[in-house]
Amino acid sequence: MLEGAVVVPFRNEVRMRTNDLTNEVLANLRKPRPYPAVTLVLPTHRTKPDKLQDPVRLRNLIAETGRRLADDPQVTAAVRADVIKQLEQVENELDLMYALDTLVVFAAQGEHQFWHLTRRADTERIVINDTFLTRNLVAARAQSRPYWVLTFDEDTARLWSGAGEQLTEEQRYGFPVEHETNVSERERASRTGVYTTGYRDEAALQHLRDVDADLAKVLENEPRPLLVAGLQHGLTALADVGTHAARNALATVPKGGLANARASVVYEAIAPARDELLRTRADRALRDLSDAMGRKEFVAGIDEVWRAAQEGRLALLVVEETYRQKVRLTSGHLSPAADDAVSDESGEVRDDIVDETVESALSTEADVVFVADDALAEHDRIAGVVRYTWAG
């Protein structure tokens, strides 16, 4: 298994998910392998009856890969057998009854791994090269920007670390924060159904100050977008106490009963607010592109954007969801290449330069945002904001 990857055991399966992706993991995956390095991309299903076809579709992809390797003069029989064995081990190890939206499988001589992603691929793919195709992982990671969720009531406050649809409770920075509510006060509220005057005593307000202080530590040490969920009177009270760290929340969810809920229940409650944050983020990225044009800090088209990413100049990269481009690299510049193009004396052919551009941007801490198709139609489907421009 690759160094730096986090492996989460689940039943008899090793499930590697978007939360486990780091720059180091992606860099290791992109390292050249002895040919052939096989990548399989399979859109999967979460519910029946569609999910019942996924194992058959995976088996068909593996069989087609075997046929392609058998027809490839660069691949010896021994190497082909090794790679197919790795793919068959994946088939035996994973349980597609627990699939998400996309399965990505990597196999080469002596190694294999697979990833479950919450971002749906547009089509099945088999890619045979001397590197793995990591575009789907990169896109899922960029879309699954980490965020914090605070759930609380009069008794308990819990902190959740989120990425995409994955939520994990964090027991750091003083969380969970516990406080014993006055019993008679709780019973009165339960009988009358009147909660609007909660947090009336100093002990309850001090509980909120403690929550707010611990939240301030979280945001200072690990800045992320914050969502806060609790009853409306609690949200109001929390915003009025302490150092006001809760006021940094990008969204609030006025819903009770989440302080001791399971991760799946918490996610279901905050999902609409998170989806709205993603839409807002995409709209803001498009506005930033427009503003950058006036400052001459704007780049567009794969050649210009790729070079800015290679030079570490991108502050923001915006890409249409399904944009892919095969290119030929000649004298430091890119030009579109046909699907059947191969490297020759006229230049090196790169299969998916968008994948490489996104990874380069992420490695230099640029913000990467995926937007709907046609949102960048006037800019050749990819654009960015640069940190600086070259003089002259």
How does this model look, in words?
- The protein is of the alpha+beta class.
- The chain is built from 10 helices and 19 strands.
- The strands form 4 sheets. The chain has a 6-stranded mixed β-sheet, with helices on both faces. Strands 7, 8, 9, 10, 11 and 12 form a 6-stranded mixed β-sheet that branches. A 4-stranded mixed β-sheet has the order 13-19-14-18, sandwiched between helices.
- A hairpin with a 2-residue loop joins strand 15 and strand 16.
- Helix 9 (about 300-310) packs parallel to helix 10.
- Mean pLDDT is about 85; it is low at about 1-15.
Concise summary:
The protein contains ten helices and 19 strands. With 392 residues, the protein is of the alpha+beta class.
Which SSEs are present, and which pair or pack?
Blueprint: E1 8-10, E2 13-17, H1 23-29, E3 37-43, H2 54-70, H3 77-93, E4 102-108, E5 111-117, E6 125-129, H4 135-143, E7 147-152, E8 156-163, E9 166-170, E10 177-178, H5 183-192, H6 202-221, E11 226-230, H7 232-239, E12 251-254, H8 263-295, E13 298-300, H9 302-310, E14 314-320, E15 327-330, E16 333-336, E17 348-350, H10 353-363, E18 367-371, E19 382-386
Parallel strand pairs: 2-5, 7-11, 11-12, 14-18
Antiparallel strand pairs: 1-2, 3-4, 3-6, 4-5, 7-8, 8-9, 8-10, 13-19, 14-19, 15-16, 15-17
Helix pairs in contact: 2-3, 4-10, 9-10
